[in-house]
Amino acid sequence: MKGWSHLARWCCGVWFVALLFCQGAAAQAPVRIALIETLSGPLANGGEAAFRNLVWATERVNARGGVALPGGGRPLQMVRYDSKGHSEEALAALRAAIDDGIRIVMQGNSSAVAAALIDAIGKHNEREPDKRVVFLNYAAVDPVLTNERCSYWHFRFDAHADMRMAALMQVLREDRSVQRIYLIGQDYSFGQAVLREGRRQLGLLRPDVQIVGDELHPLGRVKDFIPYATKIKASGAQAVLTGNFGNDLTLLVKAARDIGFEGKFYTFYGNALGVPGVLGEAGVGKVVAVAEWFANVPGESAQAFYRSFRQRFPRPQDDYVHMRMQLMMEALAQSIEKAGSLQAEALAQQLERAQVGLAGHTGSMRAADHQFQQPLRVVLMDRQGTPGVAFDSEGSGYGFRVIKTLPAEQAEQPHSCKMQRPQR
Fold first, then answer.
1. C-alpha–C-alpha distance, residues 312 and 173, integer Å
2. CA 291, CA 378: separation in Å to the nearest integer?
3. What letter does residue 422 receive in the DSSP assignment?
4. How far apart are CA 93 and CA 38, in angstroms?
């Protein structure tokens, strides 16, 4: 009997430990986030860059115990769904994510995909109020997404195309060396919006500049940009204005270099994904880019932030950090904790009043249209080691120095959103 007593106590102890383990495991069940992104095909490098940034952001939240919810802290977990860059695939991925029980969706590298997701999520949320979804957008920057097509369930953390264009124009309006400019972009909603706004703002701020070319090309399908670069050079353009991203930008600037085009590039995304290495010395003083944050933003906190990213992702080809994605994840964590729930409406109520900061960079969500407001910076390519260029890009030996900073109140743009909030 004594032996049985010891055995019984041992079994009870094991059961108790197992119970505690199961309770702890349940308390620590991850908050899953669906990343619906281009993760294969010619534009996959942009999708993978987004994934790295989001994983790093979740790791930072998880390192401090995850998000505090009733029952204990819960880690964040990214779950990948490949849209292949197509709206139909993205909608299938959305359905799969919802079926998998995920209620937070992130996407960015296509405004056409984002528009499809906004529409589908709105219809789903109306049809199935117990399974509502929120959509956090980090890079789809067609202005209509927070204007005519704004949605209570959609939150954009990147500056939209008109905001970025206005920042670029602050530099271009003072660049009197440019008298002839060529506009080129990807033939879908974002690319069209960039060229449309480029024409408008040039007419207002630089009416003396002649637009010598204005064309769109297929998104992600051009393998050889030599014919386009040849037309650019033959036009006599002194600068190119483009919103191209990913391989569509890298191949364009490579073709321009190969045929000897010596003009400038005013870009939205010219600071990474192969561009600095492709251009090399030919890009010094000629490639301009705009974003909310860059590696060479002055200040020790900013430099420490960038160093920590490079420690986490040391390969040169992985060197593309997005502050907006970090703030987006901080805003999500903050909103989950304030809501005390993962229920979509409670979460949306907190997201539309989010105010966050990291490494000296701050921003806030504008509730009227769910467009994040933050400073914007314009940078110019230069050699590493020159004043203002402590860090290079992608191990190229060339980096970008800040030449213009617009505080959030100057970067802000008016909106035409008529927000429809759910009935309570």
1. 39
2. 7
3. P
4. 11
CA distance 303 to 240: 31
For residue range 113-135, list pLDDT tens digits in order. Answer: 999 999 999 999 999 999 999 99
Quote the pLDDT of residue 24. 46
**What mean pLDDT value characterizes the chain?**
92
Q: Which amino acid is at 398?
A: Y
Token digits of residue 412: 């802000």
Residues with Cβ within 8 Å of residue 376, at least 6 apart in sequence: 159, 163, 164, 167, 290, 291, 292, 405, 406, 411
pLDDT at 10: 38
Distance CA 251, CA 341 (A): 45
The CATH superfamily of 27-160+316-373 is Response regulator (3.40.50.2300)
Q: How far is CA 61 from CA 37, 64, 123, in A?
A: 22, 6, 31
SS3 397: coil
Burial of 388 (0-12, 13-18, 19+ CB in 10 A): middle
Please give the Cα distance from 146 to 144 (Å, whole number).
5
Q: Are 142 and 190 in contact (CB under 8 A)?
A: yes
> Among positive and negative, which fits the CA dihedral 49, 52, 54, 60?
negative
Residue 204 CB partners (closer than 8 Å, separation 6+): none
Tokens 């420490």 sit on residue: 304
Question: Which part of the chain is CATH 3.40.50.2300?
Answer: 27-160+316-373, 162-298+375-410
Is the dihedral angle over the CA atoms 248, 251, 255, 256 positive or is it negative? positive
Distance CA(123)–CA(146), nearest Å, equals: 17
Cβ–Cβ < 8 Å for 319, 310:
yes
In this prediction, residue 424 carries a pLDDT of 62
Q: Which of 79, 95, 78 is nearest to 87 (CA)?
A: 95
CATH superfamily membership of 162-298+375-410: Response regulator (3.40.50.2300)
- Using 50, 70 and 90 to split pLDDT, how confident is the model at 274? confident
